[in-house]
């Protein structure tokens, strides 16, 4: 321990080579990292794509089949609408991508929906964006992991009974990895992402080639569909419903705008190009998969994914190529969950720092990650997986509505920002943390682009909420406003606390004029006499109090006290209902109501502490119970005097 | 509150009309009872039979079918051995009953196996009896409730999927009743017990009558047996195995010997006669049921109980008479569980009072019952029911081995006692709590009776352990010794504690010569200044300590402290790993290692307390964490100074 003296204050610095304890936790998540260890590395476009694209790209694994699930209600004939709907979604994707590309340039310090809404729209929209995003990160984990497990189960149907267990274990696994701390710069991300991209491009390419030369058949032994084919007509509502399901393909497209600082300079330019690449790959794969799914008569099913049906039809069986596609898809889905594990704790810490979430979320754990946020996310996602039995099809109606709310808020915020920047004097710059607001001569065009994006995503959100309301979207429609209310209540709590604690107008008039001390006696023995010694060192006004349940016992205590009590007065509280804590509370209440303003009451409780941990279960934890009762009383303090046995 | 002064001590007595709080707990289990309310009523033989016989009599509901379950492995032909085995069990029952009748006379204060073993055999056998009995009470609840549910399911097969849920709800229901406190003297017990006895006697009577005149057929649509009929030979091992299963019929026969004090005077005589009645009824019904079960070709099954098959065959369908038998059987089985709820907490309190179980078990709750024991029993029994899916057939191998161990210990103890009494001088009496040991001229005969009983039950126990070892009895064979080890460890703990705390050779040399106080600062505000005021009232040696995670924050604190710190020295602990508790622990360890023998360190922790309960989740509970770390250090005391916001 190094000691230093700065302006009269002693500062103690631990030696640099602190050896951290070796325990289970360290074995699981690695040795603690010092604050000084925080890494700062930047990445190029190719790695950047791998790091940030897994969430977006992985949605190709389920978006097509979710469109088909809805259409199938109107009979297999209606599945022909899959491809046109996919085209509409890709058009929406293009609008959103172009809109976000502008955000990246405006917010080189990272422009998630929460920050953009907070800077440009105000507190309430920012909290709405926060609520929407946190909800959606939880759903990203649940949906991605469930879909990953569905791929695995497609290839190995015997595992079907253990879907939920496998999914929860995978969540725990990703949680552990994140508690260790993932270096986002790791090239480890690049391999599976590019493997997936290449495998899918080859699959779609081979599929289109075989389609062209007519050698591509239809799915052999298609899985059971398990959907009631009501034979209803194909209504506009049904098409919008299917469209809503498919918009899950857009989730994750905003990931790059959150992580701009990870890119090499010129940051904004690199991040923007990466975003365009990502959107192009995503759109192409999604269209390709949707086209082929229709041609080979794939069916939506809980037993086998559409990706699995496509792969085994194109490769003519479940050989090596098939398994490579399934493995690649499963891995990228798990990595998509990993993205949410990076974003949820970061956003939580941001909101906590603004005072809208518990402060504890800003605390970085031993590995420099926001460990509490990571654990909360894993817990909530596991709960969802158990509740929905790891069924992607049942989770999807809850998903994406939050994403579209955050898209809308982010783009509205940007539109507002361009309007503001257009009204600045040229040359004037307003510096904000992470961004600079200055006049931009093409502000009108940019405002229209972001504004149009906002309008589109807003409409989609409304369509989504209406068409999927009954399927489960109602949960989110009620949840997000409730979360906003909670966030605001938390904020008010912290604000009130800060006011109450504030030292402005503080006058140090506080003096304790009388200090009464009460020693609780369970019996008269070395432990209680130690407590008595301590009590007498605090004040000369000491009273010993015994709660009497058994009159014989009380008599013994009275006798012993006359020998060992050092003349301190003894009060016996009779307890006809055999309660321990309540009579003490009542007694203290009685005497404290007659106290003056500057009087303190200290309650001293002797507590045996045994060497073996289990020994403590053999004693009443009276002190702990009293603590919860008396904490709420002003001017009463509880002291446990431990007596080590 | 009445105040009184006895020999210099103030005694506070609450007014007689304390109005207890009205809350959920009171609504569920009734208003608290004062210690003075403890009832003392006694009962006659007829009510006594009803109160104490339900456990024993209820075993007729499953004992026969458990014999058949084992025999069925050798094919349905082997079921013919059911009746001879039942006769052997009834013979054993007669021996045990006669033996216990003697115990009742020797222990008019109540002579459970634990007391008898403790008084006559010593500590270890007593703890063995305690372990065996506690284990068996848990099993009594699990088996009786499961069998009760099996009866219900026999009549209403649609409920079969909810067996476990129904069983656990019934356990919770019986637990609530017992937390309220059951008046054992209640005539409420008499109605269902006598209803069951009468219904069963009528059923067996009608059955024998129809058997005699040849009108009794065989079971129509017998349930699926679900037993692999291996066609093995009927070996002596198989017969002993079946016999072991049937000995479950003896469980509960000791109940009266535990509860002698509940009887009217002459207590022992009344209790003894009741025991003989009970054994006679039990034996008759068991033989009748076993005979009829064979004649009508009843089959053992998880789907329908043998009692149900007998009743519907005798009454020719599932009419009113059938339902009455099923209902009576189900109710008496639930009442059998109730018996265990009376005995388990009482024995637990007895052992706890002797220091072999946690002292908390001696605490009587608001309704004057040993509520903790009741809750523990309900929890363990529910766990068993869930683990064994409420299957009587799977629980039975664990059952009865403990009963026979306690029978053996109790009767050996009695034999030993007679031997002792035979060697006393005539006229000399040794008074023990609950019994008087004096010369008895027929001591040799009585010793032989109890000794023979002990030998018989010992042999049965060994047979049971061997034949059922693989089926599950191994659990108990390992569990009981483990429990004994735990009991003895607990006893050693309490003995050591008493020695350490003992005031013999105590000299009041303890003086605190130096009292250092440390105030932990999270920030400088009204809360921490209140803590500072308090700290300064304790000692003049005060140090403020701040754990620094963020250097900027620490700088602010140092500034503010120079204004508000009242000149108290400030120490800043740098925490590169962002830990809060550990640096404080380390600092205290450093300074406490250099302290003199008579120095105390008090750590004062300011703690915000918010009005809304949820507010407290928004703050680090540093004090609570420190408490668990520092409790184990001698001469260190933690004080939380609450600051109500």
Would you summarize the structure shown here?
Chain A is of the alpha/beta class and 645 residues long. Chain A has helices spanning 24-29, 45-58, 63-71, 82-106, 113-120, 123-155, 163-180, 190-212, 236-246, 255-258, 267-295, 306-314, 320-353, 371-387, 392-395, 401-422, 443-467, 469-501, 526-538, 551-564, 581-592, 622-630, and strands spanning 2-6, 9-13, 429-432, 435-438, 514-521, 541-548, 569-574, 599-609, 636-644. In chain A, strand 5, helix 19 and strand 6 (541-548) form a beta-alpha-beta unit.
Characterise this structure.
The structure is a homodimer of 645-residue chains. Chain A has 645 residues and is α/β, with parallel strands linked by helices. Chain A has two domains: 41-494, Amino acid/polyamine transporter I (Up-down Bundle), CATH 1.20.1740.10; 514-644, 3-Layer(aba) Sandwich (Rossmann fold), CATH 3.40.50. Chain A has helices at residues 24-29, 45-58, 63-71, 82-106, 113-120, 123-155, 163-180, 190-212, 236-246, 255-258, 267-295, 306-314, 320-353, 371-387, 392-395, 401-422, 443-467, 469-501, 526-538, 551-564, 581-592, 622-630, and strands spanning 2-6, 9-13, 429-432, 435-438, 514-521, 541-548, 569-574, 599-609, 636-644. In chain A, strand 8 (599-609), helix 22 (622-630) and strand 9 (636-644) form a beta-alpha-beta unit. In chain A, helix 4 (82-106) crosses helix 17 (443-467) and helix 7 (163-180) runs antiparallel to helix 14 (371-387). The radius of gyration of chain A is 32 Å and the shape is elongated. At the A-B interface, strand 2, helix 18, helix 19, helix 20 and strand 7 of A face strand 2, helix 18, helix 19, helix 20 and strand 7 of B.
